[in-house]
Amino acid sequence: MKYITTLILISVVLTGCIYSNIQRPLGTEFNKTELGTKIGESSNRSLLWLVAWGDGGTKSAADNGKITIIRHADMRIFSILFGLYAQSTTIVYGD
Question: Is residue 72 within 8 Å of residue 35, measured between CB atoms?
Fold first, then answer.
């Protein structure tokens, strides 16, 4: 029984530490959100907590999707082994 309790405690404490892939909105107003017809993405990456590269900004994502009017934006965060490798992606929707 003690083994099971310890295993449950470890799994609760370390939730999302080995692998995490989360997407969340960047805005809070959803009453009349229109996504538009185009999608653009841009990403930043980091490795070993030492080096990072990429342009994950909203403007870069809009340029990649050929979007001139941004209607909504999301953020996707992907992480492996406590952030040993991490990728943060900005997703914009618009026309």
Answer: yes
Closest-CA residue to 87 (of 78, 95, 56): 78
pTM across the whole model? 0.77
Say if residues 64 and 38 touch (Cβ distance below 8 Å).
no
Q: pLDDT tens, 5-36?
A: 776 666 666 667 788 888 988 877 767 777 88
**Sole residue written with tokens 């909203």:** 58
- pLDDT average, residue stretch 78-95: 92
Domain boundaries, the chain: 17-94
